[in-house]
Amino acid sequence: MTSADFDFKRAIAPIQVDTFFNEYWEKRPLIVSRQTPDYYTHLLTMADIDLIVYSLQPDWKTLRLVKQGGFFAQNFMHPDGSANIVQLYKAYEQGYSIILLDLHKRWMSLSAFAKELECFLNHPVGINLYLTPKNSQAFMPHFDDHDVFILQIEGTKNWRIYEPTVELPNKEIAGGEHSLPKDQLPPVVADICLQPGDLLYLPRGYGHNVSTSDCSSLHLTVGIFIYTWSDLLSGMLRSLSLQDVAFRRALPAGFIRDSQMKNSLSAQFQELLQFLVTQAKLESGIEKLTDSLLENMKNPLPDGYFRRIDNLSQINLETIVQKRKGTLFNIIPNENSITVKYFSKKLEISQNFAVALDYINTNNKFPIKDLPSIDDNSKLEFVHRLIGSGLLTIVEEDTGGL
Q: Is 82 exposed, middle or buried (0-12, 13-18, 19+ CB in 10 A)?
């Protein structure tokens, strides 16, 4: 297995995808013990840590040194803002965990994995790295306000998991405080030791106390930053406010301090609520969340694309093309055209290409000649434009290494 074909299905195997969503998603923890130590090592290994610090030069925003909830007291940055790796060695030897935040933005194998997850789950994804020395602990017992998948890469780590004190907390409920009081810990759900190649899924809200014993641990925390029904409704309200000025009007001056004014708001509130019930459209809320996700995805994965652009003049009807890996796009019909949104970009296309666009969206790879409902010249011009816009790519022939 390589990072190029690693996706959600392989990440949770042998658990079936349907089984996961029916029995575990937002419901209860999942523990997968594989006895396959190298299952995740194509993503990253302990030998890569020095290279990551040396070449990617994480700054103070993305690098943490933590032990039992406390941060390393000494300065571990060079004057230019890059990490002093010798200081990192020292901190690690003293029991501090090295935490690299948002590593999926800078490490290719994790970038590809994160984008695959975002395309499949349709929720934003972030990946952090945790390297913890033996007989150590980074954080005190706490819970997270987002779902997490723990991928154990090397070494072992002990996880004590507690029942949630709040069901499916969000940032507002958590209020920025995620710690669990040591003298009032919730009932224990599971005591496990993750081995290399194991996976742990924790729905948001499940408390956990994590530590190493007689060996170090390297794991990845894959955070799923869930879009909820309240996010969907908020998107629908934002769309309505663009359509109707009533939602954009100011609340009366003094509406907080004047109790009589509060009462007078009731009728108008009920009127707007009824308008929301009758006029709000599910599609508008989904479109807002789609825009948010595409903005989060920002750029396509690097894949030698400039060479494909150089070869544009050589494409013909037999050329095989495909959507670029980790690409999600949204097709929005307009009165006289179609808007295609992908990453943080948009493309205006004639409605004549609507059927061809749907075909591209539902097929992995195909020869250009198979595009439906347009003539051969239009097929070539259309694909040429989509490749030049970074949406499609040319599938290069496998030469067998010759």
A: middle
Contact of 283 with 237, CB cutoff 8 Å:
no
Q: How far are the Cα atoms of 165, 187, 224, 236 from residue 170, in angstroms, in the given order? A: 13, 21, 12, 20
Q: How is residue 366 written in tokens?
A: 């195909």
pLDDT tens for 231-256 read: 999 999 999 998 889 899 998 888 88
For the stretch 11-67, pLDDT in tens is 999 999 999 999 999 999 999 999 999 999 999 999 999 999 888 888 888 999 999
CA-angle at 56, arms to 51 and 57, nearest 5°: 100
In terms of phi and psi (left: phi > 0; alpha: psi -120 to 50; beta: otherwise), the region of 148 is beta
> Domain 305-394 belongs to what architecture?
Alpha-Beta Complex (3.90)
Could you confirm whether domain 3-224 is CATH 2.60.120.650? yes
What does DSSP say about strands 217-224 and 188-194: parallel, antiparallel, or unpaired? Answer: unpaired
